[in-house]
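Researcher: Hi, I'm a grad student and pretty new to this. My advisor asked me to get structures for two proteins we've been looking at. I'm not sure of the right format, so I'll just paste the first sequence and hope you can take it from there.
Model: That works fine. Here's the first sequence with its C-alpha cells right after it:
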Amino acid sequence: MAELMLFGRGKKKAIDPAAAHEFWDTQPVPKQTEKVTEFGPLEEKTVAEVPQEPYPVASVLEWWCPDVTKEEDLKLVYTLLNENYVEDDDSIFRFDYSPAFLRWALTPPGYFPDWHVGVRTKKDKTLLAFISGVPANIRLGDASKRLCEINFLCVHKRLRSKRMAPILIKEVTRRVNLKDIWQAVYTAGVELPKAFATCQYFHRSLNPEKLIAIGFSRLPPRYEKLKDPLGGIKRAYALPDKPGCNGLRLMKKEDGPAVVELLQSYTSEFKVAPAFDGEEALHWLMPQGDFVYTYVVENPSTKMLTDLVSFYSLPSTVIGNDKYNDLRAAYAYYYVAKNHSPTALMRDALIMAKQLGFDVFNCLNMMHNGTFLDELKFGQGDGYLRYYLFNWKFPQIKPEQLGLVML
C-alpha cells in the first residue's frame, strides 16, 4: 500500500442525507433495508400519464434550459458549479469542471437540450440551480437499456434549505419520461436508497510536495525523521521517464472502429457497463483539449490496436491556500488490457499524466483496478462513490463487476 496518506474526493455535501431519504422514499427506488434479488422496473407508466407542464417553482423563479453550445449560457452553468458544487467535508477543495469539459459532458450524440434543467430568477436571470441528464446505452446484466445519466445536481448555497433538489429531480424525471425513457443512473458520495454498487477512491501522488502543501495529503511519520523528508517522498513516488508499452500513442479519429471493438469485447466482462456505438465512442474517448486523454497501443508489425488506456482531467479549486489555487487531478477512465496487463497500462497512464503536469491520479476500485493499486502505490482514500439506478431493480454487485465510469 502506498505510504502517502491521501483523503478521498467522493461527491459529498451535494444532498442532505436525512432530507434526501424523505424524498427518495416517495420515488421508484429500492428501500434502504430491501434486499434486491430481481431485475426490472419498480413502476411502469406511459407517456400519456406524464404531466405536460413543468413542476411549479416560487413566483420569483423560472425554469430555464441553458444552451451549452453558446458561450454565455455555458459560462453561467460553469460559474454556478464552480462556486457551489461538490466540496470535501473540510471545505478545502471544490470541483472545477472547465466550460469545455461541461460542453463535452452535456452534448453526447443524441442529447436532448431540454434535459439541461436550470432554475433562475425572473428579475435578473441569475442561475440558482441546475441538473442535467444525457441519454446513454447501458448494459445491465443481460439487458441493454436506453436510459438517462443524471449529473451536475447543484443548488446555490443560499437556497440549500429550500428543498430545491427534489424539485429539480422531479422536473428532469418528467422531461426524461416524455421521451419514453423510464430509467436513470446516477452517483453520489452520500448513502441514499439504494446503491447497487459502492466503490472507494484511491489516489496516486504525482506531485507529493504540492499535495502536502495544500492539505490533500500529509507526510507519513517515517519520512519526518529523514534529513530531506520531501526528497525522500519524491523518490518514493518517482516514475520512469518514458512509457513502457511499445507502440503507445494518442488515439486518432480513424481508430474509432477498432476502439469500439476493443471496448465491446472488454466491457462484456462486467455486469454493468456502457454499450458504446462508434459515434459515442468517438465522442467520449477522442482526445480533446486538455481534459480527455486516450492512448492506444498499436502493434508495430501488424498495425493492429491491441490495448487502450484513458483518463480525464477534473481539477479542483483550492480554497484558502496562499501558494496554490488549484489541484490538477487526473481520473482513470476506460481501458482495455489485452496484450498488456492493467498494471502496465496504468503505469504508462501515470507517466503521461505526470508529464502533462497533473498533481494526482485518482481511480475507483472498479473493473480490474484492484490488480494494480498496491504495485503502483495508490493510497486508499476516505471517499466513496455509490452507484444508483432509478426505477430499475438490480441486485448489488461488487466494485470489480462494475465497468461504468461516471464523470
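Researcher: Oh nice, that was easy. Here's the second one.
Model: And its structure:
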Amino acid sequence: MTSTARLRLSLPLALLLAAAAAPPARAADAAAPTYAVLSLVGDQFTIVGRQMSTGSHLERNSQMPIAVDDAAFDAVATTAAESAVKRALPGAPTLRVSIRDPRLFALQERLFTDSVESKAMREALHDVLVKSGATYLVAIVKRRDQARFALRDGRIGSGTIAGLGFYVDDATRTVRQDTGERSQGFIAPYAYVTVALLEVASMKVVGSKSASESSVVTPADSKTAVVAWDALSAEAKVRVLDNVISRAVGAAASDLLAR
C-alpha cells in the first residue's frame, strides 16, 4: 500500500489538504486568517432533456445524472474560489481540500446545519480543518433554481435544475444573430452554485452567495450538427462546462468576500 493510500485510509472523510502555491507564513503572520477551499459540486453532472407538457404544472423534464469519478470539475471550482480569495484578500494563506466522500456530496448544504444526520460529518471535517490551521472554510455547493437561459429574444427554460449539467432543448427554433441561419434546438451547459463562508472554530456560516452561469449553443453553431446535443463535441462540452463553473464560482465567491 502506498503512503498516499495509507493517508486516505487514515482520515475518516478521505480528505486531503494541500497548501496553495503561496509562500509559507512568517511567524509575524501566524495569526493571519487561513482560508480552506472545498468543492462539493463535481461528483456528477446531469443531462436535462426538456419535455413539453400541456395543461399541467408538473415538471416533465427528463433527468439523467452522470457520475464523475475524478475531481476535475471540483478542481476547476476550487481554483476559481482560490483566485477570488487572493483578489479580495491579497496575501491570505489558502488550503485546498480535495474530497471524494459520497456522504459529504449527499449532504451538500445540510452539512452546514447542525443536525443528527450531519453531526458526525461536521465534527470530522472540523477536526481536519483545525489540524490544518484553517480559520475559515470557503465551501462550494450545488443550488437548485429555475432553468433560465438567455436567447436573443429573452430567456427560455422549464423546470428546475441544480449543480452542473447540460440542458437540452430539441424543439425551440433559433436564429444565429450574425448569419441569420436558422436551426432547431439548443444545448446549454450550466453551473448553479452557492459559495458559503464558514468560521472553522464554530462551523457557523458567516455568509453565502449564489450564482448561475450558462452558455447556449445551437446546431447552427456547428458545421456538422443536426441535433442540439451534437452542437458540441465531447471535448468542447467539457471545456464549456469548465468555463461556466469557473464563472459561476468566481462571481459568487467574489461577491461573498467583497464585504
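Researcher: Is there anything I should tell my advisor about the second?
Model: You could mention this: Helices lie at 3-10, 72-88, 102-107, 119-132, 234-257.
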